[in-house]
Specification:
868 residues, Rossmann fold, 5 domains, seven-stranded mixed beta sheet, elongated
């Protein structure tokens, strides 16, 4: 049994440090001799409190040496330990105490208030205060003899895995379960008596309890406790105590890898190049020859983790193959194990030196694993058999029978076994998304694919009304760095572009942006049910109480004036510093332009055109404005909002005007005319273009052509539908990302493209648009802003209405059909199609406001599309 192994380790290494934890500036240490005395004394004291074999004793505390001693003393007595999450609510604690029938509870001062006052519990206090002093229990009657080991089949622990808010489900693990799993882990030869393991994860989970408590103490190794997940604290502790093994979860290892690679990316160019070459060399040597040379190549990186550090272990969830590969190439030994609370927990292990990235490995000694009921592709449910499998669920024979069948435990994880005997997980059967079409999706796999997008920090796929939908938390640091203020449009476009080669059912059809992190468990797993509930109720964060946020930043005179500028553009009341301008206040790109102009007039300063893209929150705006004002005199005056009429009446700056040309010479005109003839020929033959309503175009003067936007073939289609005399006058708006660089910029000038950046240069693009219209030209604008992802028409933005009203010019609505089928987003080459372009009757501004103009154009296009 476990306690027998620990006693044997204490006999071999009585003076070796068993447990250590930093308290203040010093590490408090307990030797193995001390540990055995404390366990034996506490066990006797528990017995004196009336705790006997089979009685349940809960532990509700953060990690600390007393937690470990209490656990071991309870199970040594033959009583049953019930570890509880220190972050549970009062109601959840009361529910689990009642469900388990706990007779006593060991509690820290931080968790004491969560205990129910009416429950007749024996309270064992880890800290001074109300209840029986645990310190006195371990020292008042020092004895060195632990009670005889309980039988292998006796219940040792009840662990609650889920359902704490409703119908709790407690996993019953026997002494034999724990002892067998520990014995199997010892046979793997990955942890040795000389090791020092860092305990970061909460001990109420079986994985850290086995890996950081039962296993190392059975061997005579040292356990170092640290109640912090901050990078500097972890590194300092590892260096101070000479940690050799880090037990973590995928989220932690991913954070470590990201921090290291970020430092590499921030290095000078020549150092980045050397690092990349070393990584490639290390990966090649490891993959093809099984040689780990990364430790020698990245000595400085290794040194940060301490002089004897040798191993990172991951469990609790699936490790991203990229994280495994990145850390391995840096020279770290990374191992991954798989199991569940119901299997004590380990069941498979990726063998040292023979790891397969993305695999959960092969069965550990004395455990069998198989794929139950495999389909034609060899995929089925992972089932486990062995002495590590639980006794069942506490007081739940029905639920136990569902998962324990013919001595096999059915995990609910779906996966397959490769020809080398390695197992791979593809998803959870309960999390599998079955679309209305019958197609099955494993969200974890697809989420990893979409997380390639740098603008996405977190993503959770759900089954929505329109198919596969996504809850996304943007990486605001990346967006800020790239001067991208419109997170929703940026991410939607990148998702569309990335998914171009995926089957249609794997493409995201709905997207909601969240500001705050998505809810996860303590081990970093997404709480998918909770995410789906949040998604269905709102795409934004829940409203925070104003009292929870430090609003002192908004009390200064500057901030109050700035709020007066912001308030007209937001329907939200009680604006607070961390409000996101886009997600919380609803400011789109045009509203940002208006805000910038309002700030300029209010404060009497000239802001850089990039100001609107550099601010994401109200706090950003205040701090940025403070910095700018600190560099020059501030003019005071009455707040006056600059109208769009004033903005559009101003000529654009010289730099902006240089990006376009109003007239061309003979050679340039000949090139333009030749391209026009070529496009017309292609669209008339390959696209079978038909045109109607050309007679609706105004005979003279400036006007706007506003089509729906389906494809990159839309501009050629409109150009081919018109005469050369009309086409030669057209200027069109084009995304800056497609028209940067010396050569491409020259091409854009040749073909009358006005480059527009919705984040940093929208102001200039609007002024350029007005500039060419005032000179009698024609402006081609797609009011949707971006191409349709599914072929349907989307909401129009009001920019086209602003230009039309302030310049008093008409808009010609244009309905385009067939280009989506011909050249949908993601397709590289068009296929033969049947394209139709219909020009509607001009819409004049008259007495309409901006939105009214846009709605009229939208209604006309919808009507034209609906006629055929």
């Amino acid at each position: 049994m476990i306690l027998t192994r620990i006693q044997e380790a204490a006999l071999r290494y009585p003076d070796r440090t068993a447990l250590q934890m930093k308290v203040g500036e010093l590490y408090q240490k307990s030797s193995y001799r001390d540990l055995i005395v404390h366990i034996a004394s506490a066990s006797q004291a528990f017995s004196g409190q009336g705790i006997g074999r089979g009685d349940r004793v809960a532990i509700l505390s953060e990690n600390r040496p007393e937690w470990i001693i209490a656990y071991l003393s309870v199970v040594s007595l033959g009583a049953v330990v019930v570890p509880l999450d220190a972050q549970l609510t009062d109601k959840e604690v009361a529910l689990l105490l009642a469900n388990s029938g706990a007779k006593a509870a060991c509690v820290s001062d931080a968790c004491r208030q969560k205990l129910p006052r009416v429950n007749p519990l024996i309270v064992i206090a880890f800290d001074p205060g109300e209840g029986v002093s645990f310190q006195e229990m371990t020292t008042a009657h020092p004895v060195a003899a632990i009670p005889p080991a309980p039988a292998a089949g006796d219940l040792a622990a009840i662990l609650y895995t889920s359902g704490t808010t409703g119908d709790p489900k407690g996993v019953m693990l026997s002494h034999g379960n724990l002892a067998s799993n520990c014995a199997s882990a010892i046979k793997l030869n990955i942890v040795f008596p000389s090791d020092n393991l860092l305990l970061l994860l909460p001990l109420h989970h079986t994985y850290p309890a086995m890996a950081c408590m039962l296993l190392p103490l059975s061997l005579g190794a040292t356990v170092t406790l640290l109640n912090s997940l901050k990078g500097p604290d972890i590194i300092a502790c590892m260096q101070d105590t000479e940690v050799s093994v880090l037990i973590g979860v995928p989220q932690l290892l991913a954070a470590l890898k990201r921090a290291i690679f970020d430092r590499i990316d921030q290095s000078p160019a020549h150092l980045r190049l050397i690092a990349r070459l070393f990584l490639a060399l290390s990966g090649f040597a490891r993959r093809y020859f099984g040689i780990m040379i990364g430790k020698a190549l990245f000595g400085k990186v290794q040194a940060r983790f301490g002089p004897v550090f040798r191993l990172m272990a991951s469990g609790g969830a699936r490790l991203d193959p990229d994280v495994f590969t990145g850390l391995s190439n840096l020279g770290f030994m990374v191992i991954e194990a798989y199991g569940l609370t119901e299997t004590s927990p380990a069941s498979t292990f990726n063998p040292v030196g023979k790891q397969k990235a993305g695999s959960i490995g092969v069965p550990i000694p004395d455990v069998e694993v198989r794929i139950a009921n495999p389909d034609e592709h060899g995929q089925g449910e992972i089932a486990i058999r062995g002495p590590n499998v639980m006794l069942g669920y506490f007081n739940k024979p029905g639920e136990t029978a569902e998962v324990l069948r013919d001595n096999w435990f059915y995990t609910g994880d779906l996966g397959y076994r490769d020809h080398d005997g390695y197992f791979f997980i593809t998803g959870r059967s309960k999390e599998m998304i079955v679309l209305a079409t019958g197609k099955k999706i494993f969200p974890e796999e697809l989420e990893k694919f979409y997380k390639q997008i740098p603008a996405i920090k977190e993503i959770c796929l759900i089954q929505g009304e329109r198919g596969l939908e996504a809850a996304v938390v943007p990486d605001f640091d990346y967006l800020r760095k790239m001067n991208l203020s419109n997170s929703r449009e940026t991410i939607a476009f990148e998702i569309e572009d990335l998914a171009k080669d995926l089957p249609p059912y794997k493409r995201i059809t709905g997207l909601k942006i969240f500001k705050d992190p998505l809810p996860v468990t303590r081990l970093g797993k997404l709480k998918r049910v909770t995410v789906r509930e949040l998604y269905m109720t709102s795409g934004e964060r829940a409203e925070k109480a104003v009292a929870e946020i430090d609003s002192s930043l908004l009390s200064s005179p500057l901030a109050k004036k700035l709020l007066q500028c912001i308030e007209p553009y937001s329907a939200k009341k009680n604006i607070v510093p961390d409000d996101n301008l886009e997600l919380d206040l609803g400011l789109d790109s045009l509203a940002r332009v208006e805000l910038v102009v309002s700030i300029e007039r209010t404060f009497g300063i000239s802001l850089p055109e990039s100001f609107g893209s550099e601010i994401f929150t109200v706090k950003d705006a205040v701090l940025k404005l403070q910095d700018l004002l600190a560099t020059g005199a501030v003019k005071t005056g009455e707040q006056v909002r600059l109208s769009w009429a004033e903005i559009l009446s101003q000529d654009p700056a010289d730099e902006a005007r240089e990006t376009i040309r109003l007239e061309f010479g003979l050679i340039a005109s000949a090139i333009r005319y030749t391209v026009k003839l070529l496009l017309t020929a292609i669209m008339r033959t390959y696209g079978r273009l038909t045109v109607s309503g050309v007679e609706n175009l105004p005979a003279t003067g400036a006007y706007i052509i506003a089509p729906n936007h389906l494809s990159l073939a839309d501009v050629p289609s409109v150009s081919a539908a018109l005469s050369w005399s009309t086409t030669s006058r057209i200027f069109s708006l084009g995304a800056t990302e497609y028209f940067h660089g010396r050569f491409v910029s020259s091409v854009s000038r040749l073909f009358h493209v006005i480059p527009v950046d919705m984040d940093t240069r929208l102001y200039s693009a609007l002024q350029l648009s007005a500039y060419v219209l005032r000179r009698g030209k024609i402006l081609l604008v797609f009011p949707e802003g971006t191409r349709s992802r599914d072929g349907s028409i989307k909401e129009f933005k009001k920019g086209v209405g602003i230009i039309a009203r302030e310049l008093n010019i008409p808009i010609v609505p244009v309905a385009i059909r067939g280009t989506y089928e011909m050249l949908p987003s993601g397709r590289r080459f068009p296929k033969p199609g049947k394209v139709r372009v219909t020009f509607g009757k001009p819409v004049y501004p008259q007495a309409r406001d901006y939105d009214g103009i846009v709605k009229a154009v939208y209604a006309d296009i919808v009507a034209m599309l609906g006629k055929e």
